Amino acid sequence: MIELFHIWKQYQKPYWALSDVTLRINDGDFYFITGPSGSGKTTLLKTIFREILPTEGQILIHGVNILKVPDHRIYTLRRRMGIVFQDFRLMFHRTVFDNVAVPLQVIGVGRKEIRRRVFATLQKVNLHQKMWELPGRLSYGEQQRVAIARAVVNNPEIILADEPTGNLDPELAFEIVTLFKEFNKQGATVIIGSHDRELIRHFGDNILFLQKGHIVGKEAHA
Amino acid sequence: MIEKLKFFLRVTGNNLWQFRTRNLFSVTIICLSFLTVGIFLSLANNLRATARELSSNMSIAFYLDVKAAPETVEAIRQEIGRASFVDGIKLVSPDEALERFRSSFPELADIVAGLKTNPFPPALEVRVSARASASKEVVAFVQGMRKRPGITDVLFNQDWVEKMQAFSRLAGAVGAFLGGILILTSFFIISNVVKLNVFARKNEIEILRMVGGTNLFIRIPFWLEGITLGLLGSLLSLALLFLVISVFPVYLGTSLGALQELLRFRYPGLTQAVALLGGGAATGFIGSATSVSKFLKV
Question: Which of A18, B131, B206, B288 is most enclosed, with most CB atoms within 10 A?
Answer without folding.
Answer: B288
